[in-house]
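**Folding the chain**
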Amino acid sequence: MSIIQSYFKKEKQETLKGALEECLRDREQGKAFVYKKYYGYLMAIIIRYVKSDVDAEELTNESFIRIFRRLDSFNHLVEEEVLEKSFRSWIGRIAANISIDFLRSKKQMTSLEDVAENSIHVPMVYNSSNLEVSDIMKLLDSLPELQRIIFNLYEIEGFSHDEIAKQLLIPDSTSRTYLTRAKQKLRMLYLEQNKIRQEFK
């Protein structure tokens, strides 16, 4: 094989399916592909739960270790378009679970104040705001810890209330209540943020 042929063979673009097959054979090239491609994605999930960058980096790396160990349980024998979506969902759940385990081990999940459901006024929200994604992430950061965690698990990661209850060791009804409170709080924060923006226009 000539040097030119060898160069182009190395430069051949790897597919996710090919990389996963290499990972299953314990080949470093496949693992490097998966790590580079999904590092930012997993870090973005974990940083929604864990506020320390150092902890988030450690948990991201721990997520990859768990992903590679459990890869034989993931069905990669599907079309490439379907594979990308299902793989992202699968590894996202692993990252979320690792984040929750970390918070539970540090006992950082504080209990919420008892507020009667009917005592919270839920304001109407209209889609006339120019809030950016970064603004919305800041609003999420403003939620009490357990509300933020449950909102992330249910609305963003796609966990059911039953799964959240088992993960956080709380009743199913508590998960539903905290999600409701999180949404109410977000609506109020959203309106406050939008009002401030309007005043500075």
